[in-house]
Amino acid sequence: MAYEVVLEDFQGPLDLLLHLIKEKEMDLETLEVSVITDQYLAYIDQMDAQQLETMSEYLVMAAQLIEMKSKMLLPAQKVELEDDYQEDPREQLIKRLIEYKKYKDVLDEFKEKYEQRQYIHTKAPAFMDEYVIDTTEMIPDNLEVYDLIRAMQKMFQRKALLAPLESKIARVEISIDERSDQIRQYFRIHKNQRVKLEDLFEEPTKIFFVITFLSVLVLVNKNELVIEQDGNFEDIYLKERV
Amino acid sequence: MDKNEILSVIEGMLFLSGDEGLTIKQISSVLKLSKKEATQYVDELIQIENDKTIKGFELVNFGGVYKFATLAKHHEYYQRMIEQSENTLSNAALETLAIIAYNQPVTRVRIEEIRGVGCDAMIRKLAAKALIKEVGREDTPGKPILYGVTDEFMDAFSLTSLDELPELKEMKEDFDQEDIFNTKYTEE
Amino acid sequence: MDKNEILSVIEGMLFLSGDEGLTIKQISSVLKLSKKEATQYVDELIQIENDKTIKGFELVNFGGVYKFATLAKHHEYYQRMIEQSENTLSNAALETLAIIAYNQPVTRVRIEEIRGVGCDAMIRKLAAKALIKEVGREDTPGKPILYGVTDEFMDAFSLTSLDELPELKEMKEDFDQEDIFNTKYTEE
Q1: Are A57 and A12 in contact (CB under 8 A)?
Q2: CB–CB of C8 and B176 under 8 A?
Q3: Where are the beta strands (DSSP E) in C82-182?
């Protein structure tokens, strides 16, 4: 159980250490290695042995802590002597924790900026391939792989943007027979009414336009519908032949 | 929501829909308005956009599809904008290149399917730059041309192998917790 | 061409360019203006777009790239028309990104040092998401790759410049000095 907790809650051994220090209400700078080490090991203990492979970083830190703890048990004199020449491992760890905490502290603000951005949207660039007249053989010399990746990411975003609209604009292949039936149904609802031709073209896809137009011609041809126009360039109306 | 807010949201929706545009039906369904109300708002918006002092684009109605479109009189600048980008590759060009690199050998139709737009001019342009080339014909009716990337492409992007491109899976995946666990600690 | 025309053309250009956006350099070269003039016009346009009564979108600047974007307050309506590809960044991803943003150019080893965990998979993933990229090689044995954040990063975090990143609280690292020990690790 605890293993899951550790992995989900912590981003690594430093994160876990910061958590323990906070939990013990310890000063980061006067870190009591022995206390923290015991706590840390208690956490590690609860981890699932099968997952230990993925826990290597936690184990390395555990080893360092144990080493530190044991060193601190040595006579103080010796520690002092070493101090003159090399950094106390404890201070080194504290330094790392302080540095790590610096980033940890801004993370919420960082995350908020990211989340805020999710609420504003941009549109895909206008389709301007038609303007492309350039046929030079020059290849730009400032290209990087990043450019390709970025273009792909933009495309994925664009696809996400268009997907719902596209699905609303039913892409189903509709036959003239089916569309004719829909139009008959439409006139059953609008009995004895004159209906503007354009009202039938409710889905703005080319295929839908074509199928609808052909269906109207078929229905007129079968004498089911009549086309009316009050004058040149006036609206075109359809109505059922009675 | 007051009228100005409704008009603002409609403006934003039309903006987002870009080249695709929106029908009255779509607008009314998002804003939960009747078609009649939606039509009135859109008509008013057309008027407002039309009366702007600074007008880079206007609201047009093509066969029941409303969309913003730039003005014909500014055409030369937009033309120039595209031309200016010739010493870099446009996003559309890069996108097409990436699709070819990931899917080669690939037909134009397949590329268009993925991009969702026609690519005829773009493919000619990329071929002229020798970034892509014909690598064969597909064994299907019509024997469509298959395209692939060239050595010049590899050179231009400093690639020694296409394996250096990130996996498509990685590009699409979300950073969900689950995945992080599987990848974070599995180091070399 | 009078000022309103120039502003109109800039508006149209920005509209066409969509999420790719435009830099001052691109705008100035299309309109044959100096960069300074172009900046003034763009600033003025930002003001004008900002003051509109009907405002479905506004002009933003992410990392020096200008683009139109809708307003956060209308988000719920747009959500109904676009598929919300719930973009979430895991804490691990955020942490890695933050370290790169504050330290760039930076090697993987340095990032791992700070985080205390391996970051190979995470770095590949962030690169595949176009949020970071290779920006060079460090001049040390092994010539390790240096990473930096991208335009996409600036956009993803709505940053005009890296100066807008939250300030890191500097703690003195000299432990021989007494006063260091006063700072307590407490929850904010």
Answers
A1: yes
A2: no
A3: 106-107, 132-137, 145-149
